[in-house]
């Protein structure tokens, strides 16, 4: 194949290289065994080969990686790019159809990256690397995606790799931190807090968790980071009596949640610290259902049986199927801050929030409104029956010392109820006024 790539340079024709990588093949291999895994790879190869025409090649590169080579295309770059995308989508559709593996029906999807060549005067290694980079970008877009190579991707890859290494170092050198954002009830009492990870890069300063969590999620680094955070939070819960801090919520990513042994690892850390399990809240997003409900529900039920509480985070931004709410063993639902932020200006957001509150009430699920930034939003939510709030209107996320101070100062809590400024760091530009919460009509 490499020689075909080498021979095709400089004759005016284009070629196409495509990389395919099976999504989460490792999990199939680990849970169903290597015999099933090998059979799956064999059937994937067969389907790929059946899609090839004369002069086109498909081969298994390694593990669950496949490569497709179309060495002789026309010289019309635009037309060939469109055809390449169509082929990628066709392969995706072909490979994602269910497989019959020794009587079991299994579905798997590939992530597909492709590049035309030559782009400039790159060598064989560059062409393969470009296809691999595009494949990686396809993975980043979420699973079951196709992606064509663009030169800017190379720089972005290098940056992400550098950030990942820096993040790994920061974790090893214990430079990561956790901030806590209080959650309050309708009387202004602190009923819990959400733990949010923080990272200060030595040169780049504070990196947004949306960025570094995304980078950590590309590898098992996220598992290490969140395990550390879980441990940290359980230690804090053990230190603070339940009357002072009833509960603490941690965010768990899909990658971590779907790890073999995740449920057991949560149980172990809770028990090690001797914490009442119901004081720990695990925040999950709708993406845990990406592979169907079955396995996610099983895990959630196991956690629930143990006593841990479960919250569905960012509600309204993902699949948002109301059906999920009925199937999932949830204690709590967090209305995404994008809806709360528009409550006063967007009538449809207000209607959504109202519907979610009514429905959750009906299902016996508590609702936390996230991103409450002003008294008007708070008033709307409270008058529709919302009983839990989190947002800059009350407190920004704060370092542990400030958080513990806040918990230890009853005056600060009274301030929330009586309309006096609360203690703890306040948002810039915010006067620190904390309005009382209106009673339910
Ligand atoms: P999230 O889980 O939705 O967390 C709430 C985010 O909303 C936090 O942003 C918080 O600072 C912000 N926020 C709170 N109140 C307000 C408000 O009134 N207005 C506005 N505009 N924003 C508010 P942060 O800390 O930047 O975290 C962003 C996201 O990063 C989190 O969103 C979460 O998805 C992720 N994240 C943070 N730590 C972890 C972690 O340990 N694991 C995982 N998987 N994700 C994490
Ligand atoms: Ca969250
Ligand atoms: Ca959220």
Your description of this structure?
With 441 residues, the protein is an alpha/beta fold. The radius of gyration is 26 Å and the shape is elongated. It is built from 17 helices and 17 strands. The strands form three sheets. An eight-stranded mixed β-barrel has the order 8-9-11-12-13-14-15-16, surrounded by five helices. The protein has a five-stranded mixed β-sheet with strand order 2-3-1-6-7. A two-stranded antiparallel sheet has the order 4-5. The protein folds into two domains: 2-150, 2-Layer Sandwich (Alpha-Beta Plaits), CATH 3.30.70; 161-413, Alpha-Beta Barrel (TIM Barrel). The chain binds ligand C2E and calcium ion (2 copies). Ligand C2E binds at residues 181, 196-197, 208-210, 213, 226, 229, 251, 253, 313-314, 337, 370-373, 390-392, 397. Residues 194, 251, 283, 313 line the site of one calcium ion.
Distance between the termini: 73 Å
Quantity of strands, as a count? 17
Q: How confident is the prediction overall: mean pLDDT?
A: 87
The tally of domains stands at 2
* Attached small molecules: ligand C2E, calcium ion
User: Gyration radius, to the nearest Å?
Assistant: 26 Å
Write out key terms for the chains shown.
single chain, 441 residues, alpha/beta, Alpha-Beta Plaits, TIM Barrel, 2 domains, 8-stranded mixed barrel, 5-stranded mixed beta sheet, 17 helices, elongated, disordered C terminus, binds ligand C2E, binds calcium ion
Give a brief description.
By secondary structure, the protein is α/β, with parallel strands linked by helices.
